[in-house]
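Q&A log
Question type: sequence-to-structure
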Amino acid sequence: MTTLHPKIKEVTERIEARSKDTREAYLELIRARKPEGFAREKLADGNLAHASAGCAVMDKTQLLGANWPNIGVITAYNDMLSAHAPYENYPEIIRDEARKANATAQVAGGVPAMCDGVTQGQQGMELSLFSRDVIALASGVSLSHDMFDGALHLGICDKIVPGLMIAALRFGWLPHIFVPGGPMPSGLPNPEKQRIRQEYALGKVGRDALLKAESESYHSPGTCTFYGTANSNQMLMEVMGLHMPGAAFENPGTPLREALTRAAVRRVVELTVKRDYTPMGEMIDAKSWVNAMVGLMATGGSTNHALHIPAMAAASGYRIELEDFEDVSAITPLLCRIYPNGPADVNHFQAAGGMSFVMQELLDAGLLNGEARALMGKLSDHAREPWLDNGEIAFRDAPKESGDLDIVRPVSDPFQPEGGLRMLDGPLGRGVIKVSSVNPDRMVIEAPARVFDNQEALKEAFKAGELDRDVITVVRFQGPAANGMPELHALSPALGALQDKGYRVALVTDGRMSGASGKIPAAIHVGPEAARGGALARVQDGDVIRLDAETGRLDIQVSEDEFAAREPAQFRPNIRGQGLGREMFSAFRDNAGRPEAGGSLFDFFLPVGG
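Response status: OK
Response body:
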C-alpha cells in the first residue's frame, strides 16, 4: 500500500483536530435520523397519498406498499444553460432504471441554475455567489418531504454543485450520488477565442466578429469546455468519490453517458437502508476534503473553490482555512495544462488520460488518500475509466502513460512542482492568487495603484487610455457584504490587452475572478472586504503596491501610521443592490460570512438557537 505523504497526513489531522467538536455535533445530528426502514414508512396515510398521487400506476403501487426504496432526484435542469439542457430526459431514464433495480424514483424538486457566462459583467452576476445558498435551501425544501431513501443530484455548473453538496450533507443520513451531463464537443480553440476578445477590447474587431467567435466556442448542449469552475466541480466529485468512476467528462448524448447515469441509479439503490447502507455524511470526512484540495491543485482548478470548499466542508462539520490550501498546494505538483492554463480543453484532457490517469498518479505518489471512503468502497477503487462491454457498463484500469504530455503529465515530470493556488497575506489583507497560468516573469508585480469602486469605472479608464502604463488596479467593494461578490472576469480582456502591450499589470480585489481566469496576476478574495472596514478602503491612487506570488506577500509602500490615519472610503449601498431582483437579496448581503470561510449565508457552527 502506498504511504501517504506526511504533509497530507498533517493537514488532515490538523483539520480533524480543529473540527473535533463541530464534526461530532454534525455526526450526532445525522445519526439521530438513521433510518430503521424506508423513509415513507413514517408517513401517515394522507401524507403518502399526496406524495404518490401523481405517479405512474406501477410506481404508486410500490410507494404505497413501501416495499421498495424511493430515490429522490434534485434537478438543475433548464434549457437555457447548455450544461443543464441534457438533463431534460434524465428523470425518465432514472425512473426506468430504478424500476429495474426494484426501486422507485421521483423528482423531489428543481433548483435554479444561473449561468455566469450569461451574467458576466452584468448586474445579474451580483446574485451568482448567493445562488449557491439558494440552491442549498431549495434542495433542502425538496428533500424535506422525507419520502426518500437516497438522492441523485443533477447539476454541473459553478454554484450549483456546491449548493447541492451543502444540502446533501445536511441530509447526510441518506446516500447521495452526483450525476453529471458531460462537456459539449470541442468548438473554436480557446486561444483563438481569447485573441478575438482582446482585439474587440482594443477596438480592432467589431461585435459581429466577437459574437461569431463566442458562438463557435459555446455551440451545443454540454458544459463549456474550458477548465473553469463547472469542470472543476466535476473534478472534485471524482476525487471525492461522489461520481461513478470516470463520469465527469464523457460527452452528452452518447451510449456511455446514458450507461453511466443508469449505473448511478443502480448504485444509489444499493446504498440504501436494508441493503449496503452508506450515509453520505459519514462517508465524506476530512480525508475527502483534503483529497478535494489536492485535486484542485494538481489540475490547476478554479479559484472559486477557495470559497466553495470551506462552505461545503462546513456543512459536514469541518473547518477549512486558507493555510490548508497553502500547505496542500506547496507539495502538490501541477499535472495539467487545460485552458486557461494551456490551449487544450477538457475533451483533449479526457482523450489524453483524463481523471483516471491523474487520480492514479496522485494515489501512487501518496498525495490522494486512497483510504477515503467513496461510492465504490474506497477512493482507490475510483481511479478507473468506464467503457461499454457488449453494451454494458464496465470499468478498466487507468492508462499507465499520458496520451499527450503537453496536456497531462505524471507526478515524476510535472508542469511545475507546486499547485495552482497560493495564499497572499500582508497589510492589505489575506487572499489567494491562481498562479498556474501566470508567466514566471509576472509572479512579482510592483506598480502604482489605480483605485476603482466598481468594474465599470475600470473599463471606462481603459477605453480612455488612462491605464496604458505599469499599474496595479484595485477594484474594491466587490465582496459578499457589498454587492454579492460578482466575478470580475469581464475585466480580463482589458487587463490582458495591457499586459500584451508589455505593461506590468495586476489586479487586487475583494471580489472574485472567474474559474477561467489566471493570465493576469490577481490577488482576489482579499479580506476583510472593504465594505466591512478592510484595508482596501484606505488605498489611494498612486500608492505603490507589491504583489509577490513567490513569497505570498501583498504589500503597500505607505507607512503604517499614515495608512492607519487615512479616512476609509465609504461604500454607498443606496446606489447599488437595487433592480433585477437584487433588492430581494439584502438579507444575504447583510448576513454573508467572510470570503475566507466561503462567504456563506449559513453558519453551521453556531449552537442550536444561536
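Response note: The first helix runs from residue 6 to 18.
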